Structures are given as C-alpha cells and as structure tokens.
C-alpha cells in the first residue's frame, strides 16, 4: 500500500488550513495513497494558548470535512484533534470513528498504532503496539528546531528497529514566521 504524510504549512486561519489539508489528501489519493496522515495541530497554530479558540466538538467542521474527503478518496487517515483532549480520529472510508490516541486500528492493509509527538519518546508504547500486531506506527508530531535535529530521526529509527515495524511521522511544514517553528522532516522509517 502507499502511505502519504502531508506536511503542510499551518496558518492562523482554520478554514484555509482545512481546505489545504483536504486538497492535499485528494492529491495524495490521485498519486495512489490509501492511508494518509496529517501533522499534529494541522488546522491551528501550535500551542496551548490557541486551543480554546480553535477547539471544536467531535463531530465538528474539521472531522466532517475530513470524513467526507476520506470517503470520497476511499482512504484511511488518522488525524489529530489535539485541542480536544489528545484524541486521534481515524477516518476510514466507511465513516468516522474515534480511538484514544494511544490506540490501534486495522486497515485493509495492516494494523496501525497511533501516537502523538511526545509518545515517540517512549519505547514501551511502541513495544505494546508491536505485540498487538501493528506493522505501522504513525506519530503526527511537531518537534521544534531544538529537539528536531537532535531527536526526531533518532527516535523514529529506534522505534522502527527495536520493534521491527515501520514508523511514520507527519510534521507541520517549517514556517520561520510562526510563533512556534516546527522542524518539519516528515518521514517513513523502515525497520531495516
């Protein structure tokens, strides 16, 4: 199967972020992707001070639009609603269902373990996912310019090699003008 990691620049305008994300999901589908991951806080600026303004209920506008595009494209996609209590909502082509962000889900292609940015630092979580039969671990994240160069790739490779699973990380694109500058470098790491 083909996995797409969407690394988009996030602005302060939620509707534009959502429109951009949906367009990139459609483009990924046209290029053959069956599973897609958006970055952490893909629809809002990164930071707890923004959560009250950008939070929405599930279902809400973001989940509705992403569910529609997932159905349209016959695609699976975990996306992060961090401002709603750290929930990842996988959007299978059959509709919208919720999972705890420390959860697993089955696609037609493989079993997937879902975590967020900080979770990649904990080997035990990846071990549990591997023991539960996951072949792919997906971590939407937003490491910054300090932790990114030092830890981002190292942690991905560690989780992949130690557990013999693929690891995918999706980050916002780097925007030097943003209040929080993400490292970027969305990656898929092989266990070999």
UniProtKB/TrEMBL annotation:
It comes from the Eukaryota. It is an enzyme of class 3 (hydrolase). GO terms for cellular component: mitochondrion. GO terms for molecular function: omega-amidase activity. It holds the Pfam family CN_hydrolase. InterPro entries: C-N_Hydrolase, C-N_Hydrolase_sf. One of its GO terms (biological process) is glutamine metabolic process. Its EC number is 3.5.1.3. Residues 1-192 form the CN hydrolase domain. It catalyses: 2-oxosuccinamate + H2O = oxaloacetate + NH4(+); 2-oxoglutaramate + H2O = 2-oxoglutarate + NH4(+). This is Omega-amidase NIT2. The lineage of its organism: Eukaryota, Metazoa, Chordata, Craniata, Vertebrata.
């Amino acid at each position: 199967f083909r996995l797409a990691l969407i690394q988009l620049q996030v602005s302060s305008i939620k509707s534009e972020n959502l429109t951009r994300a949906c367009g990139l999901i459609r483009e990924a589908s046209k290029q053959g992707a069956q599973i897609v991951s958006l970055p952490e806080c893909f629809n809002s600026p990164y930071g707890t001070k923004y959560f009250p303004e950008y939070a929405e209920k599930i279902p809400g506008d973001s989940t509705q639009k992403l569910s529609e595009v997932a159905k349209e494209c016959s695609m699976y996609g975990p996306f992060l609603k961090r401002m709603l209590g750290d929930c990842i909502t996988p959007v299978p082509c059959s509709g919208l269902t919720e999972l705890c962000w420390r959860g697993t889900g089955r696609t037609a292609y493989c079993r997937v373990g879902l975590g967020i940015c900080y979770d990649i630092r904990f080997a035990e979580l990846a071990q549990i996912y591997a023991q539960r039969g996951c072949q792919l671990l997906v971590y939407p994240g937003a490491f910054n310019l300090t932790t990114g160069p030092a830890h981002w790739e190292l942690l991905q490779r560690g989780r992949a090699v130690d557990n013999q699973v693929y690891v995918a990380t999706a980050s916002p694109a780097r925007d030097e003008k943003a209040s929080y500058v993400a490292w970027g470098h969305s990656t898929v790491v092989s266990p070999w």
